[in-house]
Design goal:
With 449 residues, the protein is α/β, with parallel strands linked by helices. The chain is built from 17 helices and 16 strands. It has helices at 38-49, 83-96, 107-115, 117-121, 131-138, 140-150, 163-173, 202-212, 217-222, 284-297, 327-332, 337-346, 349-360, 373-385, 391-406, 421-436, 438-446; strands at residues 26-32, 52-58, 71-76, 100-102, 124-125, 157-158, 177-180, 194-196, 230-233, 242-249, 256-267, 273-280, 301-310, 313-320, 369-371, 410-412. Helix 1 links the parallel strand 1 and strand 2. Helix 3 (107-115) packs antiparallel against helix 5 (131-138), helix 7 crosses helix 8 (202-212) and helix 14 (373-385) packs antiparallel against helix 15 (391-406).
């Protein structure tokens, strides 16, 4: 991931520079999916800079990652939400193109790969934990129970099996509270949750939530009862104080390395996707708790976990066992997660150990930030026009960004000086999404408190 800055002087801190492993592409190309995701773009750039050939499975020309110069081949694929057809395509691709490395870029693929790992392993090189492991981490009910057993702090959460039980639990929790899906795996609505601020509104909100948030039948059959939402105590700090710990955990005890970050802006504000992050120290105790969790369930690979500060403790909200959105931030800070996944899938233990050792030598604490610069500026300008942001707040955010850019400490989600097309494609993709769903864009990005 390139710096978002003018030419830096020799004294300025620089992002991690990684040498290629050879003069040209190395063996075993990497098949990437979900080119609309920033994590996929970060992986493609990371792999390409390490000399790994990248094949991109795509469904839309506007997806930013498909335009990266590091993508050497593009193939049409069905949308992953059409799960059976996507799996058939994936297996057929593997038969025709045996030897690709395959790694999960989203929750759906993490589960689909785990559920069909024996078939996929015949044609792909994988670093894939079993299905039960993936469900233990991505099903919030299973994760909450595991955290209770391991002594990992979480927010108060209830998983009622009936509507009546949900109403009783709501009275005990009090308001405000959140209605949330148990998992995002093949959730057709892609809804992250709903805030309920009045007790009398809960019965209707619960009924409407169940109706509006359905799972693909393939997953609903695999996890009976998953359609019933969870209730969680609302924590205001989750709006702008999420602590993220991300990295790589291998099968061997010493293969652990991580980076910390604070999510300082998300949209929508209460339940949204991170837009801006700041570098933060790795909390050794929190990392140790994640290692215990991973060892308990048998997870290995790339991870990202989110914690919210509440009542004097960092409480686990989510664990992502896959590539993830702001992965470019970690890669830019000397943690080449895409290449680590490739090395692990190839069974290159010595290469993986060397990559982990190099990553541990990275000097933290220089004040790096991460954001989608053009999108941040768009949201700021629209919120100012709508009267939802004071001029001084807008100036604060712009100053935050430009001061770090001037120091060479800003990492952009999509723009890179040596790979410009994805940045332009991302701008067009975001405008297209806003025009296609104008009401949703205005409510969540512009008019949201």
């Amino acid at each position: 991931m390139a710096l978002e800055s003018p030419e830096a002087t020799a004294e300025k801190p620089r992002l991690a520079v990684v040498p290629k492993t050879g003069p040209g592409p190395v063996t075993a190309p990497f098949l990437l999916t979900m080119p609309e995701y920033n994590g996929t773009l970060a992986a493609a750039r990371c792999l390409g800079r390490h000399g790994v050939s990248v094949t991109m499975a795509e469904t839309a020309l506007s997806a930013p990652a498909r335009w990266s110069r590091h993508v050497t081949r593009r193939v049409a694929a069905p949308p992953i939400m059409d799960a059976e057809r996507f799996l058939d395509w994936l297996l057929e691709f593997g038969v025709r193109n045996s030897g690709h490395v395959l790694y999960a870029t989203c929750d759906e693929l993490a589960w689909l790969m785990a559920s069909r790992v024996a078939e996929l392993r015949r044609h792909f090189e994988l670093y894939q934990p079993p299905e039960r492991t993936i469900l233990d981490l991505l099903d919030k009910k299973a994760l909450h129970e595991l955290c209770g057993e391991l002594g990992i702090p979480t927010l108060t959460s209830v998983f009622p099996e009936t509507a009546d039980a949900a109403l009783r639990a709501g009275k005990e929790l009090g308001v405000p509270l959140l209605l949330k899906p148990r998992t995002q795996i093949l959730l057709t609505s892609r809804n992250k949750g709903q805030l309920v601020t009045e007790a009398r509104a809960l019965p209707r909100a619960y009924a409407e939530f169940v109706t509006a948030n359905r799972y693909h039948p393939l997953f609903a059959r695999a996890v009976p009862g998953v359609e019933r939402p969870m209730l969680q105590a609302y924590c205001a700090a989750a709006a702008d104080g999420i602590y993220s710990l991300a990295g790589f955990i291998g099968e061997k005890e010493h293969q652990v390395v991580a980076r910390g970050a604070m999510k300082v802006l998300q949209r929508p504000r209460r339940l949204g996707v991170g837009m801006c992050f700041e570098e933060a120290p790795v909390d050794a105790a929190v990392l140790a708790s994640l290692v215990r969790l991973c060892r308990r369930v048998g997870y290995y690979g790339v991870f990202e976990a989110e914690f919210v500060p509440h009542d004097g403790a960092l409480r686990l909200l989510d664990f992502n066992p896959r590539f993830y959105g702001q992965m470019g931030f970690e890669i830019a800070r000397g943690l080449p997660l895409g290449h680590m996944a490739w090395l692990a899938a190839r069974g290159d233990t010595s290469g993986l150990d060397e990559a982990i050792a190099r990553a541990r030598r990275w000097q933290e604490g220089r004040g790096y930030i991460y954001c989608h610069r053009s999108y941040l500026k768009l949201v700021i300008n629209l919120r100012r026009l709508a009267g939802r942001m004071r001029p001084e707040e807008a100036a604060r955010w712009l100053g935050w960004l430009e001061s770090r850019r001037a120091q060479g400490l800003a990492v952009d989600a999509t723009h890179a000086e040596d790979d410009r097309w994805p940045g332009w494609a991302s701008r067009g993709h975001e405008v297209y999404r806003a025009l296609r769903h104008p009401r949703s864009f205005l409510l969540t990005m512009v008019l949201d408190p």
